[in-house]
Amino acid sequence: MRLVACLIVALAFFAILEKPIKKHATYFYIATILISILTIIAPEKGLPFVVDYIANDILARGTLAGALFILVMVASVCPAAKMRGLLLRTRGEMAIIAALFTLIHNISHGQYYFVNLFTNISELDTQRIFAAVFSLIMIILLIPLTITSFMVIRKRMNPKKWKSLQKLSYIFYGLLFVHIAMIFSISILNGYLETLFDLTVYAVIYVVYLVLRAIKYKKQRVLCVFFIAIICIIYTVLAVLGFRAAGKHEEEALEEQNAQTTVSSDASYKDGTYEGSAKGYSGKMTVSVTIVNGEITEINIVDTGDDEEYLIDARDVIPEIIEKQSLDVDTVSGATHSSKGIIKAVGKALESAME
Fold it and tell me: I want to staple 290 with a disulfide (CB 3.0 to 4.6 A). Which of 6, 94, 298, 315 is the partner?
């Protein structure tokens, strides 16, 4: 739903501020850069909920940038005349703002994924490797597309050369969908079907766009049908595997729930350090639990496939478990599956520590 909300807000923003944006575009670009910088240097903790949600869930994850790129993509085939006119008049400015917001996403995630891609690729699973490679290609494509979107540059270019260069945007849009599918597949293949809904929204938008393009440009119909088929294949494969994983995940959850009933605040534990593993958001979560004088004194995350952006908040359950000496703690909103994974992994470790 974040994408839908961003599409609506972006449309409203450009509709209301169309004239100021066209007249004073530079000021809006500067504002976008400042927002990007503030988002990157913002503290990980202590922000008001609304600010934290916008910074991390909307900007850092690239949701707003993706929404703006989608609006630029559909501008020429939008069936609503008024909306099409608005998108066509502002798509240059919209593309530049989208590209500038993309910096947040690439810096926030690139400092881990890009660095590991070139220095420690074994730390990344297959989906993340492909997603990182696609990101790099998209950045390379985005640089000339963004530069030539500035009106001062566009006016100095030969119109035919400019149009020819802008055809690179279609490669960019295609890679954008594949990149999103790769990222979403991590949680979908772990049985979290709410992410499949997010992918469904993107898939529907892309398929509708290709259908509208096929209707408008008859010469491109075969190509559009080909890409629709690819999108449907990718979506179907992930959906089938996702539902299978969800069924298996439910069975494992029942087993874990039954096992956790043996771990209570009245249980006695042997001193030592024990490890336990459970499923997090993006894969296996492994923790170490230290017991001293029969009490939990320390919990550390040993290994996890979850992104740091989720772990930052999910770690809040650790001091609660230690304080209560119990697994009966609430999961963290916004990092539900990661925090649940920590709780379950601690439970597995405590099973090994029981006398």
Answer: 298
Task: Please say if the pLDDT value at position 120 is more than 90.
Answer: no
Examine the pLDDT at 55 and tell me if it is beyond 60. Answer: yes
> Crossing angle, helix 63-74 and helix 168-188, to 10 degrees?
140
Token pair 């849009």 in the structure block, residue: 173
Write down the pLDDT at residue 35.
92
User: Is the distance from CB of 206 to CB of 106 less than 8 angstroms?
Assistant: no
- Cβ pair 202, 235 in contact under 8 A: no
- CA separation for the pair 111, 1 (Å, rounded): 27
Kindly write down the DSSP assignment for every residue of 156-212, as one continuous string: TS-HHHHHHHHTHHHHHHHHHHHHHHHHHHHHHTTT-THHHHHHHHHHHHHHHHHHH
E-only strand ranges, 149-262:
none
pTM: 0.82
pLDDT digits (tens, 9 = 90+) for 288-330: 888 888 888 888 888 887 776 667 777 888 888 888 888 888 8
